[in-house]
Design a protein that fits this description.
Layout: E1 21-27, E2 30-35, E3 39-44, E4 47-54, E5 67-72, H1 76-79, E6 81-90, E7 93-104, E8 107-119, E9 126-131, E10 137-141, E11 159-163, E12 180-183, E13 188-194, E14 197-202
Parallel strand pairs: 4-8
Antiparallel strand pairs: 1-2, 2-3, 3-4, 5-6, 6-7, 7-8, 9-10, 10-11, 11-12, 13-14
Length: 204
């Protein structure tokens, strides 16, 4: 019998010494990689530049928390903007928020808030951001270690949320006046489409 042919993929290292990389974006030949510690790494033609991110709130120090989801605006080359999801603490507790970041020079600055006060906890923050084929912004949220919240459509936890890129609620969302697109999730962190079908991967 003929031996099976095993194809060995070619592996090329494009960046090293990354600090908890979380999201990867590519525009033309340039990569932008978010790091959970609160920075964004630009990788262009083998040159690596760690860019500062100036957020309104300090990042929470809980396990799995920090600067999580990061996705470039579909018009990034024209407007130099992106969307980010991060965990923070204030006097009322720990929360996640979705914001618009603007790149000026080599620094990203929080420009506006699209969604705030997504309850958080020690674990299960969710945090993936993706632009869908419908040009909407999709956001995964964890159950914040309270599983029953996943089944409560009034809660933002344990969900995949869908919004217009200006932060408004799409009129064709499945629940009236709600960002909720899918519910019953534990800690979704992977989002990908095959055609118009969305697949989500969960931790645990």
């Amino acid at each position: 019998e003929d031996e099976a042919i095993v194809l060995q993929p070619e592996i090329e290292v494009v960046a090293e010494t990354l600090r908890v990389p979380w999201s990867i974006n590519k525009v033309n030949e340039t990569f932008y990689v978010s790091e959970r510690i609160g920075s964004i790494v630009k990788i262009d033609n083998g040159k690596m530049e760690r860019q500062q991110v100036e957020l309104e709130k300090p990042l929470a120090k809980a396990a799995e928390a920090g600067l999580l989801g990061f996705v470039l605006d579909p018009q990034f080359l024209d407007n130099q903007k992106a969307f980010a999801y991060y965990t923070y603490e204030n006097g009322q507790g720990q929360f996640n928020r979705v914001v618009v970041l603007a790149l000026r020079g080599d620094k990203w600055t929080e420009e506006s808030i699209l969604l705030d006060k997504i309850p958080s906890a020690a674990y299960h923050h969710g945090g993936r951001l993706k632009i869908g084929p419908d040009r909407k912004l999709y956001i995964s949220t964890g159950d914040a270690t309270t599983p029953e919240l996943s089944q409560d459509i009034r809660s933002l936890n344990g969900k995949i949320l869908r919004m217009n890129v200006d932060g408004s609620i799409p009129e064709d969302n499945p629940f009236d006046h709600s960002y909720v697109y899918s519910y019953g999730h534990r800690n979704p962190q992977g989002l990908v489409w095959m055609g118009d079908t969305l697949y989500a991967s969960e931790h645990g």
